[in-house]
Amino acid sequence: MENLIRRYGRGLTGIFVLLVGFWLLMLVILPNFAMFEQSFRPYLPVTEIGGPRDVYSLNNYAKFFDAPVEWSLFGITLMVPVHVLSFLQTIFYSALCTVIALILSYPLAFYLAKIASPQSLPTLLLLLFIPLWVSEALRAFAWYVILTFNGPLNQLLMWLGLIDQAIRWQQGVLTNFDAIVIVMVYCYVLFMLLPIYTSIQSLDTNQIEAAEDLGAPWWRTHLRVVIPHAKPGIASGCVMVFMLSAGSLLVPTVVGSTRANWFPQTIYTWFNDSQDWQTGAAYSMIFLLLCIVFVILMLRLFRVSLSDIAK
Amino acid sequence: MTPANSTLNRRRFLKGSAAGAGILAAPAIISSKALASSGEVNFVGWAGYPVLSEKVFPAFTAATGIKVNFKEMPDQDTMFAEAKVALQAGGIDVIEPTIDRWGGWNANGLLQPFDESKLAMDNYLPGLADGSAGERSRKDGQLFYVPSNWGTEALVVNTATAKLSSPPSLGDLFNPENPAVLRPHSTLAAMGRWLEAQGKLPRPWMDGYTDMAAMAELWDIALAEAIKAKGNVVQWWSGENEANAGFTANGAAIGLCWDSTGFNLRNDGYAYIAPVEGAFAWHQGFVLMKNAVNVEQAHEFVKFVSTPEGSAMWATAFSSNPVGKGSSEFLSPEVSAYYAGTFNDEALAKLWWWPEQTAEFIAKRSEYADKYKAA
């Protein structure tokens, strides 16, 4: 704060603080608090709001555990509430998206930061950024077109003679979530690449050379020198890709198979089909809370602290 | 604020404003409101259909001299709340809910019946104000609800590839040879009605809409059967574009879709067919407020929307179907040929009107839809 005042003077600093305060309070805290408050109230006809039945309860949260369905996991059939199942699948496949995005991004980030020549770097970054110029809705829809039954992918493969019958890619070849995972990785991979790129860039190249001079094989150099240094970037990239994937409504709605239900779609159903905003709010709260818990657990597991990411 | 206070305030306010109005142009202000009946009708209807104010009301005023005071509301819950206020405060004559809602409105003491002698019941197409819809428009023989426009959800089929039974049935949606584009909750209702038509349900499907225990029993059966038949579903739709893409991009041969989907695909080898069990249909119409002041004008207004021209204009404003006989000449010829191709008098008489679905029912329905989607 003192730095800020010294640099910009009292007036400008005051405006900054007010604007940030307004943004935090009016656009983040109050709306979330309103949802939190609504989530404990029952869904009632307009005329009964504020009436005797409008009392706080945990009923909306209890709905999360209603409606068990069969779920077979490794050959064992379990009864799991349908929304819990959607939640678990959403978390699992979001984590999968995160891992795939990491595997794709790390080598590329290392190449950009340490190997690519400085002259070609702007061109390479530009090429990576071009997809971001198109809105996410259009990118998802483009993938929908590619993956459809009568789409260009099937036509190309059939023309090449690799397949003789069109494949329903959208329904999934390996799992019911194939299409969602492909498109999410495509949409969010840059959110992984850029933080890793920045953090590898700040690594002194001498350290890599020193490791090589001392006879470390290439994989040990990465394991012992590059990755520990890039850890905050990797962690923030993972958190971003995970939260963006788990919270995406657009991608699963556009490309999802008929057997995949993403948790935000469940929330959307409560708000839009059932018109039950209160239960929708409760589900949003559950989702927010459990995702935060999951992320914190993962950060613990990989021994990254939040302050590392903030740097 | 207690009621006593509020009357006091209101009275004081009225006195004050009357005095003020007296000084200004009192006669002009008082006369239009004070006369029991005048050349106007106060109508509360749906927001978002600008053609009503642009074309339909002026045409009505030109034909009858009655002016329409239109208040737009986003949904029926808001209309209901507004009507409850108007029961004390006045100011509403006619409202436009859907057929499944007026029963609850009437139970709240909001409505009075129409005088049939002042309407023209012969104007309506068969099946819309008579038959099962007619029964659901009446209570104790009195007519509380008259239709204004309607729409359907039925089979859109690829005429070249779909395997249809003869006559076409809702069961064709579950034929494993027909790739299908569906929306979960109406598919479950279609399964229920198909099972009922084959006599495979322990009790009438309609029971589920009034009794939640029956709903669980019936929807469990429909869900189990629908999950068994789920293999042919290639895409879900929730709006027009997805439904369209399900056919064109994902090669569905059959779907349970809105009439507009079939209309948009009519030149690409698809047909819109009413199943033998009867197409799903929705219905909205007019009700008369208990304390309506402009009763004569309200009847004129309602009657206007049953005339060939009036019903065509009303349907066009909502992009839906008209309720009046002879309205087709006022619609575009392509649209009227399309509807006539799907709905002959028999199919019209068989329409299955969506029953009332309470908030509790819809929440449960969404749960079944989620189970069906996740299976």
* Helix vs. strand class of chain B: alpha/beta
CATH class of chain A: Mainly Alpha
Radius of gyration of CA atoms of chain A, rounded to a whole number: 24 Å
Give me the CATH architecture of the largest domain in chain B, please.
3-Layer(aba) Sandwich
- Secondary structure class of chain A reads mainly alpha
Task: Please count the beta strands of chain A (DSSP E, at least 2 residues each).
Answer: 2
Mean residue pLDDT of chain B: 85
Predict the CATH topology of chain A.
Answer: MetI-like fold
Gross morphology of chain B = globular
Second-tier CATH architecture of chain A = Orthogonal Bundle
How far is the first residue's CA from the last residue's CA of chain B? Answer: 53 Å
Compact description:
Chain A: Pfam families: BPD_transp_1. The complex is a heterodimer of chains A (311) and B (375). Helix content of chain A is 68%, strand content 4%.
Topology:
The complex is a heterodimer of chains A (about 300) and B (about 375).
Chain A: H1 2-38, H2 59-62, E1 68-73, E2 76-81, H3 82-115, H4 121-129, H5 136-147, H6 152-159, H7 178-201, H8 205-213, H9 218-246, H10 250-255, H11 263-272, H12 277-301, H13 306-310
Antiparallel strand pairs in A: 1-2
Helix pairs in contact in A: 3-7, 3-9, 5-7, 7-9, 8-9, 11-12
Chain B: H1 3-23, H2 26-34, E1 40-46, H3 51-64, E2 67-73, H4 76-89, E3 94-95, H5 102-107, E4 111-112, H6 131-136, E5 138-139, E6 142-143, E7 146-158, E8 180-182, H7 184-197, H8 212-228, E9 233-236, H9 240-248, E10 254-258, H10 259-264, E11 270-273, E12 280-289, H11 295-304, H12 308-318, E13 321-322, H13 333-342, H14 345-349, E14 352-353, H15 359-374
Parallel strand pairs in B: 1-2, 1-3, 8-9, 8-10, 12-14
Antiparallel strand pairs in B: 3-12, 4-12, 5-6, 7-10, 7-11, 7-12, 7-13
Helix pairs in contact in B: 3-12, 7-8, 8-15
